[in-house]
Each structure stands twice: as C-alpha cells, then as structure tokens.
Amino acid sequence: MQRILFFSLLFVFPILVQAKDVPTLKTRVMDETWTLDPGFVSALERQLKDQESKTSNQIAVLVIPSLDGEVLEEYSIKVAEEWKLGQKKKDNGVLLLIALNDRKLRIEVGYGLEGSLTDVLCHQIIEKEIKPYFKKGDFESGIQNGVNAIIDAIDGSYTASSPEDYSHLGPLSFLGKLSEGQDEIPYQVKIFVSVFVLLILGIFTYVAANAPYIGWFIYFFLFPFWSLFPTAIHGANIGASVFLTYAIGIGLYKLYHLLTPHGRMRMKKGIFGGSYRSSGSSGRGWSSSSGGSSRSGGFSGGGGSFGGGGSSGSW
C-alpha cells in the first residue's frame, strides 16, 4: 500500500508543481509583464468600465509573461471561471489573454455572448486586428484594436470579412485552403525552407526530365510536392504558378525529347549520364550504368460562466 501511495505521489507531484496560479483579479486590465504604458492601461480601464456601465458586459485583459507549460485554452478558461467575468445568469464576460514570451493569445467568451461574439469573429479579430501589430512589437495598438473589435462584435457592428477568393486558380483553387498559415512563417524560415525544398526537388526534377522511362513516373509523382510546398510557404497564387511552371515546362521538355528527331538524338547520346546501346533493337533502354542511377534519393466578476467559446492564435 505504501509503495502504491509513493508512486502515486511521484505521478501527481509534477502536475501539482507545474500548475500555474491564477492571479487575483484587481482591475479590468492586468499587465503582469510591465510592458504596457501606465497611461494606456488607465485609458483602457476607463473604456472597459464605461462599457460595463452601459451594457453590463464585463471585458478583461490579462497580459502574462508565460503560460509556464500550461495549455493556452485550459489556462484561459481557468482564469475566466475563477474571475467569474460577466453577470450571473447573463454570462456576458470576455477575457483577452496574452502570453508574451509564448507569443500566444486567446479570446475567451462567456456563454451569453457566444451568439454575437462567435468563434469565427474571435478568429477574425485575432488574425486581422491584433496579430499584425503584435508581430511588429506594438502590443498596445494590438490590444486596443482587439478590444474595440470585441465591443463592436458584441454590438453587431463588426463582421468577419469574406474569405479570399481563389476561384481564378480554377482546378487549383483548393490550394487556397492550404495557404492559410503561410503569413505566420518568418521570412528567414521561408528563405531557408525554399532553398532546401528547391534543392531536393531539383534533383528529382532533373531525373524526371531526363530519364526516358522512369522519368515519366517521377514527373507525375512530383506533382503534389511542387504544388503543396510552395503553397504552404508562399501562398496559393505563388504555389499555383510554381506548379504550373513545373507541370507545363517539364512536360513540354519531355515531349520534345520524345516526339522530335533532335530530342530523340539527344536522348540517344545520353544527356542523363548514360547512353542507349548501339546494338540490338531501338526500343531497348539505358545501359547498366544509367540503370543503377535511376534506382538511387479591484474589480470583481459578476458570477458569469464560460464553456470554451472563443478562439486562440499565435504571432
């Protein structure tokens, strides 16, 4: 029995140690990082206090250094529930939580406001109103714009913008969905990944372009790679352009070598590092050497409750 208790404590103790405390609610705007200017904090506090007086909606902003290993969504709702934002039976509270060092944020919405401040609108507010400023280090503008958008969304005057239309890409319009996260990739990472992918795909593309038989298989096999990687890194429009350049360019190159006398002569001379055997039927393939190559690659809450509505993001 003692051993069971001992091992149970070994399992539970790290969890208890890692649990991050919820700060005591004192004001509507709490900055535990000392990042925000006191004048900005005071002005935002007055705005949220006036908003509560007019509508009874309680909106709070919490800025913390780090989540300390906590899951963003779990810690956010823990804060909202402990603070009991919103009026009892109205559940009209909203929490804007920002973890600066983790570069994460979340809008937590009380039950009573989920109809007007929907998950879609919360995502829109984070992506369009907050993150562009956070990426530049302008946290005050991001928070102010986010709070204004939250208030407008509750009032019904803020609407989600229409998703970007990729119908001009025709059959490749599906790439639009795959490119949603590319704006969040730092340009240094984009450059590194682009060079790496170009190098790797370039080797296989050279084989696809110049190998007479297996090359056709590799040519079609590379279709998803030449479309998905550029799209994920640079967006749907660039991804579609890169894919079409590959598909049309390499396709025409291979057809030229297949259908024209000059092209067949080049293949016969072995531009892929080998040659056709001079004896035997003309339909025989590469020599053994090329064949080997083709196999290698003060304020208090009013008692409101929350149910997990809202949206999260990172910058």
Automatic annotation (TrEMBL):
The chain crosses the membrane at residues 191-209, 216-233, 239-259. Residues 29-152 form the TPM domain. Residues 276-293 have a biased composition (Low complexity). Pfam families: TPM_phosphatase. Keywords: Membrane, Transmembrane, Transmembrane helix. InterPro entries: TPM_dom (IPR007621). Residues 294-315 have a biased composition (Gly residues). Residues 276-315 are annotated as: Disordered. This is PF04536 family protein. It comes from Leptospira vanthielii serovar Holland str. Waz Holland = ATCC 700522.
